Amino acid sequence: MLFTSDNWSAVHPRVMEALVKENRGPAPAGGADATSLRLKQKWKEVFGPQAEGFLVTSGTAANGLALSAVTPPWGGIFAHHASHIHLDECAGPEFFTGGAKIIPVEGEAGKITPQTLNEAYAFYGQDILNRVPPAVLSLTQGTESGTYYRADEVRALTDEAKRLGLKVHMDGSRLANVLAATGQTPLEATTALGVDILALGGTKTGGMMADAIIALTEESAGSLHRRIKRAGHQFAKQRYLAVQWLALLEGDLWCKTAAHANRMAVRLADGLRARLIDLPWPCEINEVFPLLPDDLSETLLKRGAQFYPWVLPNDPYAGKMKRFVTSFETQPAEVDRLLALIDDTRLGRA
């Protein structure tokens, strides 16, 4: 009963097969191989002719390097107060940008709104030497609350960001889950909505170490080649990263694996609601956030369920919130076992 993180899943068999097939003979180093060049063209097909992709091996590197391309070291980055770049990257974005400051912005269910963005900008947007000048709006799609921004919500935020003179970064660690939920294409969900640069996740949907930065404008791509080299992310045998993405993109495999994860999360969320367990946020991708009594949580953990506590700053849920994440490997029987264990615990049979 594994519900800790989609990062815990194995490599998808089709990705592993592609890696094995790639592992035949020598090839030029540093991204000059045929597989990397093929992926370079594929990014343009997927995100638009101006898109340029850069491969890295973690979401933290993708976010930090992407942000470094669109903000000066003294710039401010508006991000949701529960965003990964704010809470869970050990100052990686600050490191890669050379000191830019993340400014937390409020918003329900993981989402910033034009109103909360403007409230933050009203303070930081003043031309005062002692304060960081705002440079970037960062959006997490899907959010750390298991929700996602609708297309009109993204467009409203990018329009407002442009009006305020901000670049737009998207943390797309679970973008595939959003695409699976909405039916949007990658281009429709990013480039067409005014996003400047994307940190794209593939590891959660079946890759081994498949994360990327997609510069969606010529300006945002400008300095990334040297930034990536300086950060130690120009890989000698880049073809082994590139082939993972080619396998994930072929036949929309990455979205199909995400769709399965989404369905398993909905199955779990529906089962929890049927048992009158409170879920403060809707389940829209592959994350579920129930409020569980301490005794129930302890019994579930003792009986082999694996999940994380989810405590936010100024925690409004008194430590009761837990996070359950499903993956492409999660099976209906696994979800049903967990729900049956909840029933047994409540009846004193666990």
From TrEMBL:
The keyword Transcription regulation does not apply. GO terms for biological process: amino acid metabolic process. Belongs to the threonine aldolase family. Homotetramer. The keyword Thylakoid does not apply. Residues 3-282 form the Aromatic amino acid beta-eliminating lyase/threonine aldolase domain. This is Low specificity L-threonine aldolase. One of its GO terms (molecular function) is lyase activity. Keywords: Pyridoxal phosphate. It comes from the Bacteria. PANTHER family: L-THREONINE ALDOLASE-RELATED, LOW SPECIFICITY L-THREONINE ALDOLASE. SUPFAM superfamilies: PLP-dependent transferases. It comes from Parvularcula bermudensis (strain ATCC BAA-594 / HTCC2503 / KCTC 12087). Gene3D superfamilies: Aspartate Aminotransferase, domain 1, Type I PLP-dependent aspartate aminotransferase-like (Major domain). InterPro entries: ArAA_b-elim_lyase/Thr_aldolase, PyrdxlP-dep_Trfase, PyrdxlP-dep_Trfase_major, PyrdxlP-dep_Trfase_small.
